[in-house]
Structures are given as structure tokens and as C-alpha cells.
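Hi X.,

You mentioned you wanted examples for the new student's onboarding notes, showing what a folding record looks like when two proteins sit in one file. Here is a clean example. The first protein comes first, with its sequence line followed by its C-alpha cells.
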Amino acid sequence: MQTLRVGVVGLGGMGLGHCRFVKEVVPETELTAVCDTHIDRAQAAGVQYGVPAFTQHEEMFRSGLLDAVIIATPHYDHAPVAVSAFEHGLHVLVEKPLCVSVSDGDRMIAAAQRAQKKFAIGYQHRFRPEVQAARRLIEQGILGEVRRTLLITAWYRTQAYYDSGGWRATWAGEGGGVLINQAPHSIDLWLWLGGMPSRMWGQTRTALHAIETEDEAFALVEYPNGAHGYLYATTNEEPSENLIEICGDRGKLRLHDGQLQVWQLKHSIRQFTYEAEGMWDGIPAESIEPPLSPLPEGALKGQPALIQNFARAVLYDEPLITPGAEGIGTVEIINALILSSKREKPVAIPVERAEYDALLSELKAHSRPKPRVREQRATDPNLLK
């Protein structure tokens, strides 16, 4: 079997998880180098996995030891490290979010196109059977034209989580809070199923935690066809919940904490509204069994499935399930919501690049070092299931 030589940049919790998956789980990959700006982290991972360790990513990229790189650094480093990797002729898989600003995303996509290399983003939830089934149904047109969408992505995080790194939940270190850290996976699925809005009115606030970025965000959105939607994200809620609804002229789809429900209407709402003769007439809705395709015996799930798809795209030109260029959609939503909140106005999508860059510069200029940091590095246990 052919294998892809992979290096990992960024050896925090996520990066160490990727190292294990590449080394021990995905048969198409071989871990050949690791990199972190903290020399102790780099050396410890190098010893643990028996590979060369670097503290400068460009030195690793020039080493000739790898064909591809997984980027798991803090968010601001995603763009410059990815662009450098493409310039060194490497394929790139970048952790979510794609980047902090849409202008950085534009640069990453352009660099990938110039290099003609594979570019993927870490949205592994697209591989879940129920999500794949929902996508197929929407592509088949079973819901008809979208009339309303809903996204609720509610998480809980302790203050200890935010204190675990000096970069977390700061404008200078992370570029946002719940929107840029916890919400991207759900925003990606919401967009993948419901499409991209064209306009947003949003608010953000810090309601509970001692952080400078938002731990709560909510927005109304409008779509090009006049449909509307609502988004809510928080790290202040327990038990956690993730809910997506896509409501169309011919049916409704609900994806709730891993369970998919689908209803198909007997008639078009638009047509029936004017053709029905009775004042209390309603449209029969049939609950249909989602066409779930079970995973084959031994198939990989989650992050390993994502890495395997990336490797097979490089080795055998298989289609990417999570193309890097599609990751900019989530950044559009994040930037639009923050810009709408800070400027107290509705914002059009695509976001005006220069306007958001100016806002981000203002926010970073007022960012301050955390008074209390109790560093911890641990991979999210949910990723190891």
C-alpha cells in the first residue's frame, strides 16, 4: 500500500491527537516529522513517536521528510503556515477554523490553487452517516426551496478550559470565542445543508466567563431567496445540544445530537396555500426513514476518517469530502456576526474584507495578556471515541 508522509505543526491537544491518528490508526499515512515553537513540546513528541522534531515549520518543510502537513496551531497561524506549506510544494490539511479572517482565507485558497496541491479542512462531522444522508436528501430536492433554517450549537466550558492557554479566547491570540472555537463544526454543517445566507444581524456578548471574547452569540440571517434563519452559539449551557433544522416548501429536516428526522409534504406549501378550499385545511406530512448508509466493517470514523480521505485524495485522487476552499464559508459567518455586533448594523455576505480587517486590528490593539494562565494540554476526549 502507498503511504503519505505527514508532518504535524502544532503539538497542543489537537496536534498530539493527529500525531497518534497518523502514526497508529490511518493505514495510508506515515508520521515523519513534528513541529512546535515550544522546544520541549517538539522534543517530547519527537521522542514519543520516534520522528525528527523541529521548532521552525519552514525548516521542517525544507527537510524533504514529508509530502503533506497537518496544521493544528492556534488560529492566527493557520494562514501563514498553510501558505508556506503550499509554497514548499506540500499538500495541506488544516484544523478548523480555516483561519481568523476571510482575507486570510482568500490567501490560503489562492496559494493552494497556485501550488496545485490538495487542500482539506478538519470538518470531520461531514463523514457521519446521518449527515451524509441529510446531504443526499437535500441534493435530491426532497425539501424543495428553503424557507427557514435554524442552528443551535450549545456547549459548556469551564473557566479552567479558558485559563489553559494564554491564547484562548483573546482577540490577539485566537481572534474570537465560541464562534471561532466551538461553533465552526456546526456552522459548517448548517451551511452544507442549508446554503449560504446573504445578510446577517448579529450580537455577541461575554455572559459568564472571565474572557475578552464572546461566550454567546446569536443572529438572524436572510437568504438570497428571501428565506430567514436563526443562529445561536454558547459555551454557557449544559447539557450540550446541537440542532439544525432546514425547512423547505416540500418538507422539513431536523438533525439533533446525531439523530436525523425527515418529513415530506404531500403538496407544495406555496401551491397548496392558494389551491386549498377549506379554511382549516392542512398539508399531510409523511415521516420518512432517512437513507442511512452503515459504515463498512473496520471503516474509520471521525478524525481518522478525515485524515484517511485527505491521504487517499493525495495518493489516488479520490474526491475530498472537506475541501479547504469550502472552509471559508464558516469564516464568512463568524466574521459577519462579529462585525454586525461590534458595528451595530446588518452586514452583507460576503463580508467586506477591508472592513473586517480594520475591526480585527482594533480588537487586537485592545487585547491584553491574561492575568491567570494554568497551562494544560489534553486532547478533547470526544475526539478519541
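Then the second protein repeats the pattern, sequence line and then C-alpha cells:
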Amino acid sequence: MTITLQPVKGTRDFYPAEMRLRNWLFDIWRETSRQFGFEEYDACVLESEDLYIRKAGDEITEQLYAFDDKGGRRLALRPEMTPSLARLVLQRKNALSFPLKWFAIPQCFRYERMTRGRKREHYQWNADVVGQAGQTAEVEVLSVLLMSLEKMGLSPEQIRVHLNDRRILNAILEHIGVPEALHLPVMVVMDKRDKISGEALDTQLSELGLEAEQVSRLNDFLRMETLQQIGEALGHAGHAGDAGFSGALGEMRRLMETLEAVGFGGYCQFDITVVRGLSYYTGTVFEIRDAGGKLRAICGGGRYDSLLSAFGGDPVPAIGFGFGDVVILELLAEVGLLPELTPEIDYVVIPFSKDQVPAALTVGQALRRAGFRADADFGFRKLKRALQRAGEIGARKAVLLMPEELERGELVVRDMAAREEKRVAVEAFLASPE
């Protein structure tokens, strides 16, 4: 039997070069999260299938990697992290101190059609604020997200935050006479706007029960570009103190103003077409997209105040996002911002014969005990090739065990960047490596 050497379709292998890039990205995510006071958590990649089964027909339910285990339990590889977060919070709700500011970098799996930037597994940065009502949580979540993108070198000329509110969408659907029971299924279809043609979208809306006039009026709303247009069409002024959906218009204005005040206004725009396909969103929703619109959404999230109650708990205000690794690396490559990363080695110790191995091991261990990252090259290459190899692995310095110098009790330490060498007594070097 021939065993395939390729990874499972839609998954990836990470050789050291790819791992350096992945770690670089994860380091930015972790560092930025901690700057904002978020704490890291994790959960098992296996969950009960019913954690992801929802009545609104979310695509995610159809994309599960689900199976029966040997005990007959229905399990699934997690497709997203938010339900696991809700489960963790509900388990210890009475012992936790709210608000929670938690982040994770889970691996997620979805059996979906693969296109550019879309695979069947990906790593995803999740950051959530649980137990804090009001727009401060929105501002914090969007700020940590945008600061991470700035650390990658991205600017408003390259990325945009598209903001909307589910309550505004509900108001539109109510305004055109769509029954409340159809609101969530209609939004799941609306979220496919970037994936299928307009004709196919209209057909799916009609199949849900919308009349042709309702579909036409909905499309008219989706072509509106400003909050003012939406407010006038709904017959609401949209002040932040107003009740209901009119208040949502005012809150969106205030959110945009606050993001401007904290220095991120240049990234943000209102976009009535942003829906987010997951049924548990209740208020603010957002997506980050490349300015050229060539890629799928880089990141998305929103407020999900009713998710915990859907799992049997009391309602708890919550907001967060999921930021996948695949699309952002595509974008950074396209705009020339991917870093050139090499192994980070302080020293490589180079012996030139087998009888120098004990000395090489002693020097290497002294360097490590002194806090340096030290490798040893036991290939016994000629000097030129040994130095070439030291450069290839990114060594900052090379310790050469030259036969004559070593016999005199000296080491040759070479600065790889400056191409300068100096001789150092073995005992002095071991006592205090530079």
C-alpha cells in the first residue's frame, strides 16, 4: 500500500521557515492582547457536536468535521472558539470576576469550499470582552485589533474596518415586512453577498419566503452608504438616547466618533452590507477587509449578548472577534510586508575534527548556561563551507576551534556581520562568554 506524503486536503504542514512566520504573527497577537490586559485561555479542539448546532441554518453547522466516538458520543472538531468560550464561562460563572478580557489562538476546522485565503483548517486569534455592556468594550476590541495590524505595518490605505449593527438590519427587515421568525435565516443568506451572484442571492431570499417587492426594497437599503440615508429611510433621526433601533443608529455614530478620538477613525466606515453569518450576533458587527477588496474578510466579529443564555445561562453582554492566519499572511505578502525571518542563533560552535567534539560540547554548554542560543556544527566541514553554513542558519557569531589556536588554549570568535575575528583564551571565554 502506498501512503500519500501530502497533507490532508485543505490542511498545512509547517516547516521551520513557515513556523518562524507563524510564531512572528502569534507573537504580535499575544503581545498586543497583553498590552490591553487580555489573559490567554484555551480549550480542547474536540467538543460536543450540539455546541455548534443552531436553528438559524448557520453555514458553520453544515461545515462541521463531526463523528461518533467509540462511546457513541457525537463530537466535532471545533470550527470556531466562541461557543467554547461560552461553555467555559458558564461552567465557572459564579467564581469568575467580570468583566473578563480573554484571548486565545486556537486551531479551527471547517469542511468548506477552498478558495484563495480559505482552507479547511486555520489558526485564529480570538479576543473577547465578557460582562461589560456599553461601547467601551467595542472600542477596546477594535483598538486591540487595529493596533496589531499597525504592528504588521498596515495602514488605512491598505485595510478598512466595515461597521454595522444587527439591530439596524432587524429594523430594515421589520420595515419591509419580513416576519421576525425569518430575520436570522435572511441574515445568513445576506452574509453570502460576497460569495454568490446577486441573482443567486435573490433566489435564496425568495426561497425563504420573501416576496419580490421585499427583495427589491432590501437591495435598495443595501445600496445605501451612510447612516443618514438609513435613518431617513427608516423614519428615525437616530440619536444615541433614542429607544430601540433608532438608538442603534445613534450608537453607531458615537462609536465612529470614539474610534476617531482614540486615533483609529481613519480605518473605519459604516457599511450596511456587513451582516456576519453567525446567528448569535445581537448588536455591533464588523469586518476588516483589504482596501482593494481582492481577498475575503481578514477578520470579523461583533456583539453577542444572548449567546450564554442560548446555552442555558443568564444573558451576559459580550463582544469579540476571530482573526484567521491565512488571509492576513496573503495580504502581507501582496503588499510586501512579510518579514524576512531567519533562525535566531547567537553562536554556532564549529569543530573541525572528531577529537574536538568534547571541547565543542563544553563551549556550547557554557554559552547556553550564560543565556545564549548556541548551536554546534558537527559536519566537520572546511572553514569556508562551515562559515557559509553559519550564515545560512542566522548565527550572529561563530566560535572556531582552529587546531593550532586550540592547542595554544585559544578560541577564534568571528563576528559574522562585521567579518572580524579575535582570539580569546578558552578559560576566559568559558568563564564569561561575550
